[in-house]
Specification:
The protein is α+β, with helices and mostly antiparallel strands. The protein is 16% helix and 31% strand. The chain has a 7-stranded antiparallel β-sheet with strand order 3-4-5-9-8-7-6. A 3-stranded antiparallel β-sheet has the order 1-2-10. Strands 11-12 form a two-stranded antiparallel sheet.
Length: 251
């Protein structure tokens, strides 16, 4: 055995210290190896985001215009106002509230939307042209009112021998435009009448139409409110039979 002196450590003590250092080193190496081989426990996992898929147009009503062969969805609380020149959907009838109106026009000259618009009085008014959009597969011009004037958007597009002009300031404009589509024209029923007396008029708040007397329908359209009924004077509108089909004859 070595003789210990001041400043030196005896051999047994030195061996014990080295053993402790070796054991501690082995423990840390083994622990680190286990951490590297162990898969993530998911402590830091991020919860998945919940994306709302609620359909904002759920519960909307669908309106069909058989004469001009189109349909459109509108908010259930909007009032439909039908006239000889337009179909309007208003949030607050008889007020300056949001509105969405569709004006069909004849286009016998087969003009483009811009050509037709330039022939109208509105075409020369001070409107700001915006980027064109697509409505029911047709390219549409878009004009917006000036910032200091009454807010209104004009949308013009053609389809077949018709021009459609939409005036809108409703916050649901995009949703309503997306739902607008053209539908197959209604096929006339052959032989539904032989003479005028085979036809009758049915009424809505806005107007009337001629149908066969054999048709049990008694109301033209429900939930429609108009300021004036175009058939309020029966002598001005009578049912007639033309080409075996009931039609209305405006005197």
């Amino acid at each position: 055995m070595m003789k210990s002196s001041r400043g030196f450590v005896s051999v047994p003590v030195l061996i014990i210290i080295l053993a402790l250092i070796a054991g501690a080193t082995a423990y840390f190496v083994r622990t680190e190896s286990q951490l590297l081989q162990t898969p993530s426990s998911g402590v830091f996992s991020i919860p998945s985001l919940s994306i709302s898929t609620k359909d904002e147009t759920a519960g909307w009503k669908t309106y069909r215009n058989e004469k001009y062969s189109y349909s459109i969805n509108h908010p259930s609380d909007y009032t439909l106002q039908v006239s000889r020149t337009a179909d309007c959907f208003a949030a607050k009838p008889d007020s300056d509230g949001p509105i969405f109106c569709i004006f069909p026009h004849e286009n016998s000259k087969n003009l483009s939307a811009r050509e037709w618009w330039n022939t109208q009085e509105e075409g020369s008014s001070s409107l700001i042209e915006a980027n064109p959009i697509e409505v029911a597969g047709e390219q549409a011009l878009v004009f917006e009112s000036e910032p200091d004037s009454f807010p209104m958007t004009n949308i013009i597009f053609t389809h077949g021998d018709k021009v459609f002009v939409i005036d809108s300031n409703t916050p649901y404009e995009n949703e309503m435009l997306s739902s607008f589509k053209f539908i197959p024209p209604q096929t006339p029923t052959l032989g539904e009448c032989q003479q005028d007396s085979d036809c009758k008029l049915i009424y809505s708040s806005c107007g009337c139409e001629s149908i066969p007397k054999s048709n049990l329908q008694t109301i033209l359209e429900e939930d429609v409110v108009c300021k004036r009924n175009e058939c309020s004077e029966p002598t001005l509108v009578v049912p007639v039979c033309r080409n075996n089909r009931c039609q209305r004859n405006d005197k």
